[in-house]
């Protein structure tokens, strides 16, 4: 009998000891050393083409991140939310989607955006300060980046409830059946909205996959500050299954997310995927992780790099030749060039643009403020002393 | 053609919701107890029975969840109408309303519309416990991206709820709960309603202008009757829309009367009256014979209900303010 007396079991006994590397529940198909392993429940027979494709996606996603980080350092972006180390989690989840599936991202899902066909250049506008989300969500079924932590999980649930009402869930037609994926992080798991989203999704059996990238850190706060039990085990308390997958293993993430989405599309309700990963970079370019975490930890996770392990596997099994890497290198460089030149060419909004789009049609009140401000600006025309733009 | 019915505000809203659901199958209702029970005030009475559980949705008891999922439904092309059970319960949803509902259209540069109606029974006078009698309108009117309207009578309830649902922007729809089952009015369903975002002169007068909305419209009209017996002819304007404000009829009136009193159940400090007073002063400065006076609740939390009538603006306090405008 534990010190808790008769009031329920000792949670440490129920959930087992905490494991730094994800513990025995971790679904893995490719080890950090690049060894292919199998899982009785979640597996997938990857073709060489698929494997090369996933590798390419991760390399290009990392390139987006590296270029954007450099653009911030050069003053072209105000800030950038880095995804370094989370490429497998995002590509695995992103490639498991079908065109009719809808994504609700945080502000870090650059790899998922890429999978959904959003031009990565469009992602930069928000971080450069020229817009607040420059893409049309309906065009690629990819929602706008959401900055308030966890708020989008409720939007995802409502959208999934809409899909249920549209009759695109559980029809048996793979071209029709649809699901939603809600991205969020370990920090967001503490938000009321995320917990309410779990409750609504469970209550209505909504076709939504809650995809949590547990990257171990919410800015400076470690995962232990958010939860006392492995995150994926929370799902059971809400009434749906939770799976922990190696988020640095693109194969496992793909297989698990695919199964979760399929379950949702078939009308079997929500599920929770905890992609166990690591934020190798800073929270954003304004953050300094050396103030709160040890370098040893970073070095440990570098050995589990999501791209390296697939590279080892591809090479060892003769699935790639040097030409593949050379071509990919060229492609990555072109992408970098596209981002650098495109970013600098993004037009600044005009002063009067701030009045647009508050509503579907401009109200007289806002039009009056706009006109007054326009007249004020015009009063400086020809003057060299003030109000210049 | 059926004869015109005499209906209460509750009935008007119920009929309006029903009509909106008949007209557009994308209209969904969601909230706590709105289904089988028909809402704690019975505003959605009978709608789940007729439109089904997929369109009249009993939600878990979580206001942020109600509004947040409505955002997702709107993104999917639906027109959700959500009920917040009582004014004081809207705050758990405040973040979703202010950060998401109000900003999605702007964030998307007009690519995304948020046709969501958030119905809130508001105001006091029903002898309720704490959090059941509040007037939070200024918090929403202060937020760019939200439209805020308040109905004051059964006929407006019928039309305004339909207009709000058909509107492409988010609307905070305030219903004076004290009036739900009070006075009846005759509804002519074949009439053409006034546009949603307009104010209306509900009593013409010459000596002073009283601005009111929601529950205080009735107070202002009673006040005008009492003043008339004392030889003073008050003009009463039902603002109906709080954001955007429809100031043209207000300016026109105040320029004629030279005096203006605003009354609402919300706290006076930074309430709607403050904005109205500022605008009237700016636009009607040379017509004013007296400063614009405000009659509202005191800047205290809502008191225990046994003394709520001493807290809410009533006929005498509005009349007193009118008298004071004549003392300048």
In short:
The complex is a heterodimer of chains A (389) and B (328). Chain A is an alpha/beta fold.
Notes on the protein architecture:
The complex is a heterodimer of chains A (389) and B (328). With 389 residues, chain A is an alpha/beta fold. Helices cover 43% and strands 8% of the residues of chain A. Chain A has helices at 11-15, 48-73, 87-95, 110-115, 120-128, 137-140, 151-165, 192-204, 234-238, 250-265, 295-302, 306-316, 322-345, 364-378; strands at residues 102-104, 180-185, 208-214, 217-218, 221-222, 242-246, 271-276. A 5-stranded parallel sheet of chain A has the order 1-2-3-7-6, sandwiched between helices. Chain A has a two-stranded antiparallel sheet with strand order 4-5. The model of chain A has no long low-confidence stretch (mean pLDDT 94). Chain B is of the alpha/beta class and 328 residues long. Chain B folds into 2 domains: 5-187, Rossmann fold (3-Layer(aba) Sandwich); 200-325, Rossmann fold, CATH 3.40.50.920. Helices cover 34% and strands 20% of the residues of chain B. In chain B, strand 13 (260-267), helix 10 (272-284) and strand 14 (293-297) form a beta-alpha-beta unit. The radius of gyration of chain B is 19 Å and the shape is globular. The model of chain B has no long low-confidence stretch (mean pLDDT 97). Chain A binds chain B through residues 104, 131-134, 136-138, 143-144, 146, 148, 151, 153-166, 192-193, 196-197, 199-200, 203, 356-361, 363-366, and chain B through 28, 54-55, 59-60, 62, 64-65, 67-78, 80, 92, 95-96, 99-100, 104-113, 144-145, 147, 168-169, 197, 244-245.
Question: Can you give keywords for this protein?
Answer:
heterodimer; A: 389 residues; alpha/beta; Rossmann fold; 2 domains; five-stranded parallel beta sheet; two-stranded antiparallel ribbon; B: 328 residues; seven-stranded mixed beta sheet; five-stranded mixed beta sheet; 20% strand
């Amino acid at each position: 009998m534990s010190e808790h007396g008769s009031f329920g079991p000792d949670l440490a006994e129920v959930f087992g000891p905490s494991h730094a590397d994800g513990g025995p529940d971790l679904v893995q198909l490719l080890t950090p050393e690049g060894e292919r392993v199998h899982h009785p429940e979640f597996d997938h027979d990857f073709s060489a083409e698929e494997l090369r494709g996933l590798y390419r996606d991760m390399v290009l996603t990392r390139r987006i991140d590296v270029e954007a980080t450099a653009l911030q350092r050069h003053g072209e972006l105000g800030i950038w939310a880095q995804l370094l180390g989370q490429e497998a989690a995002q590509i695995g989840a992103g490639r498991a989607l079908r065109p009719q599936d809808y994504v609700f991202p945080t502000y870090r899902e650059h790899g998922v955006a890429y999978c959904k066909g959003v031009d990565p250049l469009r992602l930069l506008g928000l971080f450069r300060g020229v817009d607040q989300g420059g893409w049309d969500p309906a065009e690629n079924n990819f929602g706008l980046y959401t900055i308030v932590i966890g708020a989008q999980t409720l939007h995802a649930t409502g959208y999934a409830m809409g899909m249920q009402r549209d009759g695109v869930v559980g029809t048996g037609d793979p071209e029709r059946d649809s699901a939603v994926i809600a991205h969020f992080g370990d920090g967001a798991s503490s938000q009321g909205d995320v917990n309410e989203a779990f409750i609504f999704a469970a209550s209505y059996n909504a076709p939504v996959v809650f995809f949590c990238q547990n990257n171990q850190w919410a800015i400076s706060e470690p995962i232990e500050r958010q939860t006392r039990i492995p995150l994926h085990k929370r799902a059971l308390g809400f009434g749906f299954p939770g799976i922990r997958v190696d988020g640095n293993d693109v194969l496992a993430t793909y297989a698990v997310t695919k199964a979760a989405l399929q379950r949702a599309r078939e009308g079997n309700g929500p599920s929770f995927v905890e992609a166990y990963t690591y934020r190798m970079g800073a929270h954003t370019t304004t953050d300094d992780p050396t103030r709160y975490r040890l370098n040893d930890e970073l070095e440990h996770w570098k050995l589990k790099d999501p791209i390296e392990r697939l590279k080892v596997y591809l090479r060892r099994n003769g699935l790639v030749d040097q030409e593949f890497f050379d071509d990919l290198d060229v492609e990555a460089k072109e992408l970098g060039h596209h981002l650098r030149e495109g970013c600098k060419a993004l037009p600044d909004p005009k002063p009067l643009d701030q009045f647009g789009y508050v509503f579907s049609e401009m109200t007289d009140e806002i039009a009056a403020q706009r006109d007054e401000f326009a007249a004020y600006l015009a009063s400086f025309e020809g003057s060299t002393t003030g109000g210049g733009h | 053609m059926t004869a015109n019915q005499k209906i209460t505000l509750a009935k008007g809203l119920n009929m309006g919701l029903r009509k909106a659901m008949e007209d557009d199958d994308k209209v969904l209702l969601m909230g706590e107890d709105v289904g089988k029970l028909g809402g704690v005030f019975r505003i959605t009475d009978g709608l789940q029975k007729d439109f089904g559980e997929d369109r009249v949705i009993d939600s878990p008891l979580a206001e942020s969840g109600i509004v947040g999922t409505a955002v997702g439904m709107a993104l999917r092309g639906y027109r959700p109408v959500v009920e917040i059970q009582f004014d004081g319960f809207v705050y758990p949803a405040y973040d979703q309303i202010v950060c998401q509902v109000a900003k999605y259209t702007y964030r998307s540069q007009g690519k995304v519309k948020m046709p969501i109606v958030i119905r809130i029974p508001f105001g006091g006078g029903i002898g309720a416990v704490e959090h059941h009698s509040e007037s939070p309108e200024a918090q929403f009117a202060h937020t760019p991206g939200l439209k805020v309207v308040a109905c004051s009578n059964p006929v407006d309830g019928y039309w305004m709820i339909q207009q709000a649902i058909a509107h492409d922007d988010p609307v905070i729809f305030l219903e004076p709960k004290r009036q739900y089952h009070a006075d009846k009015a005759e509804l002519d369903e074949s009439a053409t309603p006034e546009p949603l975002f307009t104010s209306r002169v509900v009593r013409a007068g010459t000596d002073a202008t009283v601005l009111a909305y929601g529950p205080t419209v009735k107070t202002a009209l009673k006040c005008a009757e009492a003043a008339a017996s004392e030889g003073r002819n008050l003009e009463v304007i039902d603002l109906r829309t709080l954001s955007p404000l429809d100031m043209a009829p207000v300016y026109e009136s105040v320029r004629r009367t030279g005096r203006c009193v605003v009354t609402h159940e919300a706290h006076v400090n930074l309430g709607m009256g403050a904005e109205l007073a500022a605008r009237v002063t700016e636009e009607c400065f040379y017509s004013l014979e007296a400063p614009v006076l405000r009659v509202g609740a005191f800047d205290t939390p809502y008191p225990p209900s046994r003394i709520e009538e001493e807290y809410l603006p009533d006929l005498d306090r509005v009349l007193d303010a009118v008298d004071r405008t004549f003392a300048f």
